[in-house]
TrEMBL record:
Domain of life, source organism: Bacteria
Pfam families (UniProt xref): AAA_5
Protein's recorded name: ATPase dynein-related AAA domain-containing protein
Residues in ATPase dynein-related AAA domain copies: 56-106
C-alpha cells in the first residue's frame, strides 16, 4: 500500500498542501539514500506525533532503528546538522548513572537555551534522548505550564517552579525507550500525555550506509512548515476538527469497542488527559488544507483511522508487559492497516506496510 497517487488530483490543492506531502517525501528519499528502508506510514506517524506535542517517545524492541529514525529525520530537514541536533545517550555504560544523568540534564537545558536565542527563531532544534529508562520520563518528558509572563515552561518533577526551564516552540524532544523496560502505573498515567511511535521488528534493512554531507540540504521552508502547522492546545484542536467534521466530531472521539474492551480488561481509565492527547493527534493528522495524511480524500475515515491508530499505539506502550493484550492490539493494528486505501506519494513507490 502506498501514499497519494498525485498531489494535483482533484481541486483545492494549493502550494502548502504539496509542501506537506513533499516534507514526508523529502524524509523518505533521504532515508533511502542512507540505505534505510522505512515505510512511509512510519514517517507520517512520526510527523503527526511531532506536530501534536514537543515530546515524542519512540519505543519498541532493541535494535529496531529508534535512534536512527530520530537522527535521519533531523538530518533530512536541517543544515548545518550538528548545530541543530543534539544527541544524549542516557544509557551509556561508560559512566556512573549519576554522572550520566547530570550530563544529560546539562545538554538538555543547553539545547533549550540555544533554541530560545532570538537569532534562532524559525530554526528547528532536535534533541534525541537515547536509551531512556522509565523513570527518566518524569525528568525530561514533563507537563507544560504557562507562567505569569506568558512563558511556556516544563513542569519538572522534583524541581521548584523558579528552576523550570522555558520550552521554546522550535524544540522537538524525542526519547527512545526499549520495550523490555517495565512501566509502572504512575509512569503509565504520564505516558497518556505523550505521543509515542511504535517501532516494530524488521522495519529497517541492515544495509546501512553513511549519508554524504552534500545530501544534507533540505528544501527551503521545510522547518518552518513543521513548526507552523501544529495544533497543540485542546481549543485549537477542537476548533480545527469542528470545522472539518462538524456533527461527527463527538462520535469519532470515542474509543472503538475493541479498544474499550482492552481498557476494561486491563483496568486502565480513559481520562480527560488521555482524551486531550487523542484530540490533538487527530487534529494534526490533517494538512492545513484539510486533507488527511493517512487517507487524503476522505475526511471522516482519516479521522476515524487516526483516532484508532494513535490510541492502539498508546495502549501498546502502556500494556507492553501484558502479552495477552499486546497481541490483541497488534492484531487490531494490522486489521486497520489492511483497510487503508492504496495511494502513492509523489515520486515514491515504497510499500506502505507498517
Amino acid at each position: 500500500m502506498s501514499p497519494p497517487t498525485s498531489l494535483q488530483r482533484g481541486t483545492g490543492f494549493h502550494h502548502l498542501i504539496a509542501d506537506e506531502y513533499r516534507l514526508i517525501a523529502q524524509v523518505l528519499t533521504y532515508c533511502h539514500a542512507a540505505g534505510y528502508a522505512i515505510p512511509p506510514l512510519l514517517v507520517i506517524d512520526y510527523v503527526i506525533a511531532l506536530k501534536t506535542s514537543p515530546f515524542v517517545l519512540l519505543f519498541g524492541p532493541t535494535g529496531q532503528g529508534k535512534t536512527e529514525l530520530a537522527r535521519l529525520f533531523a538530518q533530512a530537514l536541517i543544515h548545518p546538522f550538528d548545530d541543530q541536533y543534539t544527541y544524549v545517550n542516557l544509557g551509556s555504560s561508560l559512566q556512573a548513572p549519576e554522572i550520566q544523568d547530570r550530563f544529560g540534564w546539562m545538554k538538555f537545558v543547553e539545547t533549550l537555551e540555544n533554541a530560545a536565542a532570538p537569532a534562532n527563531a524559525g530554526r528547528l532544534f532536535f534533541l534525541c534522548l537515547d536509551n531512556l529508562r522509565p523513570h527518566d520520563v518524569y525528568t525530561y518528558f514533563a507537563n507544560v505550564s504557562r507562567d505569569a509572563d506568558g512563558i511556556t515552561r516544563l513542569v519538572m518533577r522534583g524541581y521548584p517552579p523558579d528552576k523550570w526551564p522555558a520550552l521554546p516552540s522550535n524544540v522537538i524532544i524525542t526519547g527512545t525507550l526499549d520495550a523490555e523496560h517495565p512501566v509502572d502505573s504512575d509512569q503509565s498515567a504520564l505516558l497518556a500525555q505523550i505521543n509515542c511511535v511504535y517501532m516494530q521488528p524488521q522495519w529497517l534493512q541492515s544495509n546501512i550506509r553513511t549519508v554524504k554531507r552534500q545530501q544534507r540540504m533540505a528544501p527551503v521552508g521545510m522547518q518552518r512548515l513543521l513548526l507552523e502547522q501544529q495544533y497543540r492546545s485542546d481549543e485549537a484542536a477542537t476548533e480545527r476538527l469542528h470545522a472539518l467534521l462538524g456533527p461527527h466530531l463527538d462520535d469519532i472521539l470515542q474509543p472503538p469497542s475493541e479498544l474499550m474492551a482492552i481498557l476494561w480488561q486491563s483496568n486502565l481509565t480513559y481520562t480527560q488527559t488521555w482524551r486531550s492527547t487523542m484530540l490533538r493527534a487527530v487534529a494534526n493528522s490533517f494538512t492545513i488544507e484539510g486533507h488527511g495524511l493517512f487517507i487524503p480524500y476522505d475526511v471522516l475515515n482519516n479521522a476515524q483511522f487516526a483516532y484508532s491508530f494513535v490510541m492502539a499505539r498508546q495502549l501498546l506502550l502502556r500494556l507492553w508487559g501484558q502479552p495477552q493484550h499486546s497481541a490483541a492490539i497488534e492484531a487490531l493494528l494490522h486489521r486497520q492497516l489492511a483497510q487503508l486505501p492504496s495511494t502513492t506519494l509523489v515520486g515514491l513507490t515504497d510499500s506502505l506496510l507498517y
